[in-house]
Amino acid sequence: MARPKIALIGAGQIGGTLAHLAALKELGDVVLFDIAEGTPQGKALDIAESAPVDKFDAEITGANSYEAIAGADVCIVTAGVARKPGMSRDDLLGINLKVMKSVGEGIAQHAPNAFVICITNPLDAMVWALREFSGLPTEKVCGMAGVLDSARFRHFLAVEFGVSVKDVTAFVLGGHGDTMVPLTRYSTVAGIPLPDLVKMGWTTQEKLDAIVQRTRDGGAEIVGLLKTGSAFYAPAASAIEMAEAYLKDQKRVLPCAAHLDGPYGLKDIYVGVPTVIGAGGIEKVVEISLDKAEKAMFDKSVEAVKGLIEACKGIDSTLA
Ligand code: A3D
């Protein structure tokens, strides 16, 4: 059987890391696409030259034309601009909306059967616009944010408790922005929920609140340190986990920005929720019960995403 084809639209910091991880994990052949001439070709050749050392079998190529993504099974989209210090994710909206239009049209023409994972910010609005521009089925287009936000939460919790990250599960819902909703009640160490760990004296409520806030600010913390761009190792690893779940029909339960038309009482919006990812794409949206405080936070996050989607409609009349 031929190897799956993975198209990476955008060959910047995340795109290059995605290519490297996909190759190391032998998920399939990789095509890096970018408008910058030489960048995708250079990164592809560099990674291909690491194959004899790391011993993976995968064809890695770079291109500046959409024909190269023809027939891709998975497209991961990072095309656009990233944040610099002082910028919010929302500041990127106008520029990246135009990029989503060309990417959506390129995917529709050359890889209409692909499972599409968007990473470009502001994430929830961009994945919504990308779905509109591409016209692909909603279950085949999703956004990566929840896996990353949850991974950041898990890392901070593992450090606080002095336990392996492997035994820490965590849940972050809502939009990928300052209003994201880390759910302590559904986050555990080996099945023990965080509120119980507070009662058991493993940490204090103040420390837990600080970790929740650090998770919300996780992207900005890295932007502040790097100064020239935003996080790319953990975002790439997170999207690869989602791509692998699709390619191997793993039925993983992963939080991601999924199209909602009914669940959580929402209509035609993308926002972070637990999903099941398998060969059908987003095979299921998991509707969990939220208490009053959690619901209030989730509603606030949804309102922020709605505002960004309305802003997209204001900029591009074809979306209205
Ligand atoms: P960067 O290294 O700048 O790469 C972006 C690439 O996109 C560059 O190589 C550009 O040449 C290319 N590009 C620009 N316009 C186009 C176009 N029209 N067609 C094809 N390629 C184009 O950025 P990055 O890789 O660090 O980040 C990419 C995106 O991911 C940004 O929007 C970030 O804000 C976003 N991001 C999201 C998360 C989430 O958790 C959702 C995390 C980190 C970064």
From TrEMBL:
Q: What class of enzyme is it?
A: oxidoreductase
Q: Does the keyword NAD apply?
A: yes
Q: Where is the active site?
A: H176
One GO biological process from the UniProt record?
A: lactate metabolic process
Per UniProt, residues of the Lactate/malate dehydrogenase C-terminal domain are 148-310
Q: Which GO terms describe its molecular function?
A: L-lactate dehydrogenase (NAD+) activity; L-malate dehydrogenase (NAD+) activity
Q: Which parts of the sequence bind substrate?
A: R83, R89, N121, R152
Can you state which reaction this protein catalyses?
Answer: (S)-malate + NAD(+) = oxaloacetate + NADH + H(+)
Q: Which CDD domains match?
A: LDH-like_MDH
Question: Any idea which positions bind NAD(+)?
Answer: G10, A11, G12, Q13, I14, G15, D34, N96, I119, T120, N121
Which EC number(s) are documented for this chain? 1.1.1.37
Looking at the record, the residues that make up the Lactate/malate dehydrogenase N-terminal domain are 5-143
Matching Pfam families: Ldh_1_C (PF02866), Ldh_1_N (PF00056)
Task: Could you list this entry's UniProt keywords, alphabetically sorted.
Answer: NAD, Oxidoreductase, Tricarboxylic acid cycle
> Does the keyword field hold NAD?
yes
| Family that this chain belongs to | Belongs to the LDH/MDH superfamily. MDH type 3 family.
General function of this protein: Catalyzes the reversible oxidation of malate to oxaloacetate.
Q: Which NCBIfam families match?
A: MalateDH_bact (TIGR01763), PRK06223.1 (NF004863)
The molecule here is called Malate dehydrogenase
